[in-house]
Design goal:
Helix content: 25-40%
Distance between the termini: 54 Å
CATH topology: Rossmann fold
Number of helices: 11
Order of helices and strands: EHEEHEHEEEHEHEEHEHEEHEHHHE
Largest sheet: 7 strands, parallel
CATH architecture: 3-Layer(aba) Sandwich
């Protein structure tokens, strides 16, 4: 059986390709090798056993070529940086997904299942409760609030701090361009899948960690950012006050979830959160990275900067995926150790932390609070 993995040269895609080959599947990779993610071209970890096609999921001929003789599709190709080129998120993420289903239906392709990568970002600020115990889906924090250094979400009626909750798949409240485009992918996959009899699954990943995360994204996960800082013997930068709650999931656990929903028919037509099952503050996670790199003496910098559009707390409820028998098995410490080993294997990386920071500041993504320490 042949499987197509779009975005198969990327972080999650490439690890999934390895696992599929190990299970005996024939694999085709479709990847545009987009810069800056693949700044130096095709990665050397792409296995020779996989058929590789350099192409764009927005281009009909490229996609149709990649779908030849395929029965399963993992659709991981996505635009996921933090830059304000809004239309590109929808051109790649939404249009690319729509084109996939268009080709399947138009050409009557014998696709047995489509698995689409979504994101925890779809939940936006997530689920909260007020002092009276009522559930609230808050909007994005106001710019004036962030500029004043008031980080927590508050009740619009009385100003009390809202209490965050682990957020299930029933919540969709996307606030930024990336999140909105990923939500559209979920709707395209699940609704068109049901309508045209194409078994489809959407997976909302939390913050995925492990080897092969690109060094060159302007915006990337905490593991990459903090690890690079300590790797270059520098104090990492933490945005806001570092008390933001997050859940982190190992790439190994993500791959296990990817294969599980392929084999389990109960997943057809469903969406699942894929998270770490335990929450950490950003400061707590930074301390984990410091211990792994043996750099506890380098205290993080917390200067009161914020990234416009970031969520305050974001933790996924993974009960639904657990009901299929899946359980996260790897800790953040193990993921960071694996990433450190990956970093130490590199021979041609330069210190790109300043470049990424300066780029986001030039685009007015990173901003400074006027009043620090107010929560």
């Amino acid at each position: 059986m042949r499987v197509l993995v779009t975005g198969g040269a990327g972080f999650i895609g490439s690890h999934t390709v390895d696992a599929l080959l190990e299970k005996g599947y024939e694999v085709t990779i479709l990847d545009s090798l987009e810069k800056p993610v693949h700044l130096k071209g095709k990665p050397n970890y792409i296995p020779k056993e996989a058929r590789f096609i350099e192409g764009d999921v927005r281009k009909r001929d490229d996609f149709l070529k990649a779908l030849s003789d395929v029965q399963i599709v993992y659709h991981f190709a996505a635009y996921q940086d933090y830059l304000p080129d809004f239309s590109k998120f929808f051109h790649v993420n939404s249009v690319g997904t729509a084109l996939l289903y268009e080709l399947i239906v138009e050409k009557r392709l014998p696709i047995e299942k489509v698995i689409v990568a979504s994101s925890q970002a779809v939940a936006g600020e997530g689920l909260y409760r007020n002092a009276a115990g009522h559930e609230i889906l808050p909007p994005i924090r106001a710019l004036k609030q962030l500029e004043a250094g008031q980080w927590e979400l508050r009740d619009s009626q009385n100003g009390e701090i809202l209490q965050w909750q682990s957020t299930p798949e029933t919540v969709a409240n996307p606030q930024n361009q990336y999140a909105m485009s990923k939500y559209s992918q979920e709707m395209i996959a699940l609704n068109l899948g049901r309508r045209y009899g194409i078994p489809s699954v959407a997976l909302r990943y939390s913050i995925v960690q492990g080897p092969r995360q690109s060094f060159y994204n302007h915006y990337s996960g905490a593991c990459r950012i903090f690890s690079l800082a300590y790797f270059f013997n520098r104090a990492p930068l933490i945005y806001e006050d570092g008390a933001q709650m997050r859940d982190y999931v190992s790439i190994k656990d993500v791959v296990r979830a990817n294969l599980l929903v392929l084999d389990d028919s109960r997943a057809n037509g469903e969406m699942y959160n894929v998270g770490g099952g335990k929450s950490f503050t950003v400061k707590e996670f930074c301390a984990i990275v410091a211990r792994v790199f043996e750099k506890e003496h380098l205290a993080p910098q917390i200067p009161g900067l914020f990234r416009f559009g970031d969520t305050r707390h974001s933790v996924s409820d993974i009960s639904k995926l657990r009901s299929l028998g899946w359980e996260p098995q790897f800790t953040p410490q193990e993921s960071v150790r694996a990433y450190r080993e990956y970093l130490e294997e590199q021979t041609d990386i330069e210190d790109i932390l300043e470049y990424a920071q300066e780029k986001m500041q030039s685009l007015n993504v990173v901003r400074t609070a006027c009043k620090k320490g107010v929560v």
